[in-house]
Amino acid sequence: MVASAQDYPGERLGRPREGAGSIGRLGRRVGALFIDYGAAYLISGFFGWDALAILLIFGAIQIVFLPTLQGSPGHRIFGMRLVRLDGGWVGLWRPVLRTILLILVIPAVIWDADQRGLHDKAAGTVLIRD
């Protein structure tokens, strides 16, 4: 038996097509990334730190805000939050793993049909709209 293709990203995960609980789409994700990376860039520049510091600050922003606010500042500004696949709290280890893979870039740009990057698949998380 051949599995039927899904009609929209997140359908096989039980997520709605659009609105609250639907998969956070590319435009929102990229916007959130620009905000978070931009904040790290500004903080680093204020102190005169180098490019490595930008990545470390970006990582710290992710690791601190993902478990506490269910999303980074950029995610929250763009109306998204990070949850486990079952909808629960992401805990502490998932944001760390997800952030390390996000900083490596490649896992974040390889997606499945649900628009989840390898960093989200490895962490068992999904970025959804509020």
Automatic annotation (TrEMBL):
Membrane keyword on record: yes
Membrane-protein topology: Multi-pass membrane protein
Domain RDD: 31-124
Regions that span the bilayer: 46-69, 90-111
Keywords: Cell membrane, Membrane, Transmembrane, Transmembrane helix
Domain of life of the source: Bacteria
Subcellular location: Cell membrane
Protein name per the record: RDD family protein
Species of provenance: Microbacterium invictum
